[in-house]
Write a structure and sequence with these properties.
With about 375 residues, the protein is α/β, with parallel strands linked by helices. It is built from 14 helices and 12 strands.
Length: about 375
């Protein structure tokens, strides 16, 4: 079939499936509000708002949101405006909530951010800050794969067709000179799209030879006897790449700039506290995970997962642009115009007030 027809069919599949989601989050559309925020006595409301709804995922790659919730950083910054929380397990559901106004500000991955921005022709969201870098690994069965070249011919899982890790793995395969049909996953490597929730059991059963996955799935595989063959951070300049950033609806940003600034201040304060108190922060994140998901992570999974993630205020904009290019090269995305996807002015105002250096939008900011 002609290349244009093949690409069109691929894009149709992308539109039909919840693609370009943050794989670390699982797949579904449930959200829940824990409704436990406490408002300090005598505090004043910000922008006249009764509440600000903050969305995130029950995952260690959303450490800033987990710790900020558990330790009360967001509520402190918002004063008498109540910090309410909604947890999600799929990128598209959080984008939908943001677009509908049921969530005001959210923590989410690069691919759903790109997808949400381009599908709305740049009208619905802005990325206003960074949150985390790293936390993605290629974990393999050491009895079957002893070197990177041994990956050829093997069955390797990614979380979902077209998601952040799937695109990264397809790009890595292409750089090895190997061929794989992006849509079917068939070729020199068999790419198996497998939900993060079931990948460890599939690996344990022997139906997978490895997986290119985010934390904590990577550490769960290691706990099952897998070996980290490649840390994706080694493929990026300075070993940094965006895995989680902060988004806001353009409407909320325009109408409630002080509230946005307060949440960003809380995010910066939380990241500062995490770096100064890594062990206490890890415990706080796990406590919030248990509250949000019903199950805490065991030390053998939590400890290595936590070490591989770096919280950051910088959205690492150049790496998001590169990830979009990788999706285009794989034939999973039309070349997007990402100009205007960032508005970092509120964050840079917060950083300046704290004596911290400004962050850059890689030329993708609003005019």
């Amino acid at each position: 079939m002609p290349a244009t027809t093949a690409l069109r069919r691929t894009l149709a599949v992308i539109a039909a499936l919840p693609l370009l989601t943050l794989a670390a989050c699982g797949y579904g559309s449930e959200a829940k509000d824990d409704g436990t925020a406490e408002v300090a006595a005598g505090a004043e409301k910000i922008d006249g708002l009764d509440s600000v709804r903050i969305g995130y995922f029950g995952n260690v790659t959303h450490a800033t949101a987990l710790v900020g919730n558990q330790k009360g950083f967001f509520q402190k910054a918002l004063g008498a405006t109540e910090a309410k929380y909604a947890t999600f397990n799929a990128g598209p559901s959080e984008i939908e909530a943001l677009n509908s106004g049921s969530v005001d500000i959210g923590w989410i991955g690069p691919s759903p951010s790109i997808n949400g921005y381009t599908k709305s022709d740049g009208k619905n969201l802005r990325i206003i800050g960074g949150s985390a870098s790293g936390g993605v690994k290629l974990v393999v069965n050491p009895d079957k794969i002893k070197s990177l070249k041994d990956v050829k011919g093997k069955r390797i899982a990614t979380p979902q067709l077209g998601n952040t890790q799937d695109v990264a793995f397809l790009n890595w395969i292409a750089e090895q000179g190997w061929k794989v049909d992006a849509q079917s996953g068939k070729g020199d490597v068999t790419v198996v799209r497998s939900d993060n929730k079931v990948t460890p059991d599939a690996y344990k059963s022997g139906s997978l030879d490895g997986a290119w996955v985010p934390e904590p799935t990577a550490s769960k595989l290691v706990a099952e006897g897998g070996k980290v063959l490649l840390d994706e951070s080694t493929l990026w300049p300075d070993k940094k790449f965006v895995i989680t950033n902060i988004i806001v609806s353009q409407k909320f940003l325009k109408e409630h700039p002080k509230a946005v600034e307060a949440v960003l201040k809380a995010s910066v304060d939380t990241n500062e506290w995490i770096k100064a108190n890594p062990d206490e922060a890890k415990a706080a994140a796990n406590k919030q995970l248990e509250k949000d998901t019903g199950k805490a992570l065991p030390p053998k999974v939590l400890d290595p997962a936590w070490k591989s993630i770096e919280v950051t205020d910088d959205p690492l904009a150049a790496t998001l642009d590169a990830q979009a290019e990788h999706a285009v090269k794989a034939g999973l995305l039309d070349k997007p115009d990402l100009t205007g996807i960032y508005d970092l002015k509120p964050l840079n105002k917060v950083l300046k007030a704290k004596g911290k250096p400004a962050v850059d939008d890689a030329g993708l900011g609003v005019e």
